Amino acid sequence: MHTKVVFHTMKALNSFGFPVLRFNFRGVGLSRGEHERGRGEADDVRAALDWLENEFHLPVVFAGFSFGSAVGLRACAHDPRVPALIAVGFPAAPFQGPDEEPRTYEVGFLRDCVKPKLFISGDRDPYGPKDKLEALVAQLPEPKKLVLIEGGDHFFEGRLREMRETIEAWVKQAI
After folding, report:
1. Where are the domains of the chain?
2. φ, ψ for residue 139 (rounded to 5)?
3. What does CATH list as the number for 4-174?
4. pLDDT (tens digit, 0 to 9) for every residue of the chain, 175 residues total?
5. CB 61 within 8 A of CB 175
6. 62 exposure class (CB count in 10 Å sphere: 0-12, 13-18, 19+)
């Protein structure tokens, strides 16, 4: 919630006057509950959508970073309150600790999603290798866009401006 990537994504969306909600998933920071490896966290996204709907009564542009992008895409792809999706640093090849069960973020649910979709990643992101991201996005229906930020890593170190400008330009065109 407090990474520079999330902050700059929030600023990009807020520049259009969109209200922005950043939150921790269950078991993160001061949030209650236990991390459920993406299963329960989709419910966290749905709860956030419910709150935004009750507070603002506006369509929601979903934007998530890394794990949050994978979970949020699943929760928002077919939700009519969400007309557009942004995945920043999508973990096409996620980190796996030595004692963890394998992590994969399957995206078959997006194969019939005709909402505008932006995937943005650094071209040096070890969790989003270019070939895996290109293959993933290629199987999705239009409208879709994949942008690889030259020299960017998973946290877009030294490339946050380019990441933010990419989001801003896409939102202008997509919404």
Report:
1. 4-174
2. -80, -5
3. 3.40.50.1820
4. 789 999 999 999 999 999 999 987 756 666 666 665 656 789 999 999 999 999 999 999 999 999 999 999 999 999 999 999 999 999 998 777 777 766 667 889 999 999 999 999 999 999 999 999 999 999 999 999 999 999 999 999 999 999 999 999 999 999 8
5. yes
6. buried
